[in-house]
Specification:
- With 472 residues, this protein is of the alpha/beta class.
- The chain has two domains: 2-248 and 448-471, Aldehyde Dehydrogenase, Chain A, domain 1; 253-437, 3-Layer(aba) Sandwich (Aldehyde Dehydrogenase, Chain A, domain 2).
- Helices cover 39% and strands 23% of the residues.
- It contains 15 helices and 25 strands.
- The strands form seven sheets. Strands 15-18-19-14-13-21-22 form a seven-stranded mixed beta sheet, with helices on both faces. It has a six-stranded mixed beta sheet with strand order 10-9-8-11-12-24, sandwiched between helices.
- Helix 5 (155-166) links the parallel strand 8 and strand 9 (170-174).
- The chain starts with a strand and ends with a strand.
- It binds 1,4-dihydronicotinamide adenine dinucleotide and the ligand O=C(O)[C@H](O)CS(=O)(=O)O.
- Residues 147-151, 174-177, 207-208, 211, 226-228, 231, 234, 247-249, 281, 375, 377 line the site of 1,4-dihydronicotinamide adenine dinucleotide.
- InterPro entries: Ald_DH/histidinol_DH, Ald_DH_C, Ald_DH_N, Aldehyde_DH_dom, ALDH-related_metabolic_enz.
- This is Acyl-CoA reductase-like NAD-dependent aldehyde dehydrogenase.
- Residues 17-468 form the Aldehyde dehydrogenase domain.
Length: 472
């Protein structure tokens, strides 16, 4: 069984208290991980701060390390994918995709390390500044605290650690307690790629306790977080003047207009809606379909859904694995039952078996049902008819969230109209809201968060602009 300590500076520190990590399908115990106390948080921040002040790595060295780390991840793809299957419960097919995407995220970050530039400012064009010459550069912030979630634990961590290092920062990192093994993989990979000790410090343990100590620590210059809106809100409130990037929840709307390729729309909504058993913040959740084509679309949606196979996530044939815990599956099942109690109809699915929830399609839903207005984070699609496009857009926007949305239509004017009117950080046309390429700016408005990820955009938020003015 794996036993790991906290990685602070060059030490792997064992602690008295540990916590266990389980295989999410078989419940077999996989690992025992050291649980950080307040003194460890203090030490991790101290080491990160001291390492930052040494300022040892040049941009090219940062590029080399991140590039090498990407290649090492690629080389170990299968082994890493198996760890993701075990600790998250995602299927082996999904896990391989996550490793491929992590490689891309690290490569993109490495490239950005070479592009950290600035701009000459045309100061002489300002009256009274004829003798001035100026420019700005981007400087690292210092110590960045990364707090990462369980659902895409490797790639979403790469999206924080990669840009933070590329920009010249140091990091204190707290991964989700359900899935720390992929964090150790990334940590070991970075060290093997030549990252000197102290640049990334990995501390594990309870989110609430570590979160409290990390937020109190004024030596931390920035927080970058992916997770629930509740925790994100706390971080925003407690970080004061320090910067936060928050990638939070969503209840992604997708519009299927009458002129769409219905087969493509149904296939994409099924594939992307049930990917990772719906545990993605851009997972398809609300499908607004024009009334004239609702029955035909629903028929196709059911047809694709019925082809999905639930089961052992290690099995190459499996499409849907368990949720992260039985507790989460209980919650999703309660939400389904509550909706049914309030008049919703189960078109397909709806049953629970331990941590598994059948891929579920609901209709006759109402805007105030949890399965519509909150983030399900499970394999549940709701299908809602509409008459006019404006009405679909109004309902799509009627949400506290605003991360990504999708629209299926063959009419360019409809597509562009929706792209303008949908209140989300990203609008995906003729694919589902769940589409994400790791290089694009990714993030939400409203309660879906603050800031954008995608290495180029994350780096903008992990650096400060410094203006230099010369009086000539
Ligand atoms: N946007 C997304 O990708 C994600 C959304 N969620 C949403 O959140 C729900 C709950 O999932 P959880 O994993 O429990 O999310 P969470 O927000 O509790 O956990 C995310 C990370 O924050 C840490 N954390 C927990 N409490 C904290 C605190 N007080 N201060 C600082 N860090 C803290 C956790 O240990 C973990 O590393 C999901 O059902 C889903 O709706 C969860 C994970 C990812
Ligand atoms: O937060 C999430 O759930 C992810 O950003 C979705 S993705 O990046 O894995 O597509």
């Amino acid at each position: 069984m794996i036993q790991r300590g906290l990685i602070i500076g060059s030490e792997e520190i064992r602690t008295e208290e540990v916590f266990s990590v389980y295989n999410k399908f078989s419940n077999e115990k996989l690992a025992q991980i050291a649980k950080a106390e307040e003194k460890h948080v203090d030490l991790a921040v101290q080491v990160a701060k001291e390492t930052f002040h040494h300022d040892a790595l040049s941009p090219y060295e940062r590029y080399e390390i991140l590039n090498k780390a990407a290649l090492l991840l690629q080389k170990r793809k299968e082994e890493i994918a198996k760890t993701l299957v075990a600790e998250v419960g995602k299927t082996i097919k999904e896990a391989r995709i996550e490793v491929d995407r992590s490689v891309q995220t690290m490569l993109l970050s490495s490239e950005e390390a070479k592009r950290l530039g600035g701009e000459v400012l045309p100061l002489s064009a300002s009256p009274g500044s004829e003798n001035k010459f100026g420019y700005y550069v981007r400087s690292p912030i210092g110590v960045i605290c990364a707090i990462t979630p369980f659902n895409v634990p490797l790639n979403l961590s790469c999206h924080k650690i990669g840009p933070a290092l590329a920009a010249g920062n140091t990091v204190v990192w707290k991964p989700a307690s359900d899935t720390p093994l992929s964090a150790y993989i990334l940590m070991d990979t970075l060290l093997e790629a030549g990252l000197p000790a102290g640049y990334v410090n990995l501390i594990c343990g309870s989110g609430a306790s570590l979160g409290k100590w990390l937020l109190q620590d004024q030596r931390i210059g920035k927080y970058t977080f992916t997770g629930s809106s509740g925790v994100g809100k706390k971080m925003k409130e407690q970080s004061g003047f320090r910067s936060v990037s928050l990638e939070l929840g969503n209840n992604s709307p997708n519009i299927v207009h009458h002129d769409a390729d219905l087969d493509q729309a149904a296939q994409m909504c099924t594939l992307r809606g049930f990917f990772s058993a719906g545990q993605a913040c851009i997972s398809v959740q609300r499908i607004y379909v024009q009334r004239d084509v609702k029955d035909k679309f629903l028929e196709k949606l059911v047809e694709y859904t019925n082809k999905l196979k639930l089961g052992d996530p290690f099995d190459e044939e499996t499409d849907i694995g368990p949720l992260i815990s039985v507790g989460e599956a209980n919650r999703v099942k309660e939400w389904i039952d509550e909706a049914v109690g309030q008049g919703a109809k189960i078109v397909v699915g709806g049953q629970q078996d331990g941590a598994f929830i059948e891929p579920t399609i609901l209709e006759n839903v109402k805007a105030e049902m949890k399965v519509v207005c909150q983030e399900v984070f499970g394999p549940v699609l709701t299908v809602i008819p509409y008459d006019e496009l404006d009405d679909a857009i109004r309902q799509a926007n009627d949400s506290e969230y605003g991360l990504q949305s999708g629209i299926f239509t063959s009419n360019l004017n409809h597509a562009m109209y929706a792209a303008k009117k949908l209140q989300t950080g990203g609008v995906i046309i003729n694919d589902a809201s769940t589409y994400r390429a790791d290089l694009m700016p990714y993030g939400g408005i409203k309660n879906s968060g603050i800031g954008r990820e995608g290495p180029r955009f994350a780096i903008e938020q992990m650096t400060e602009l410094k203006v230099v003015v010369m009086n000539l």
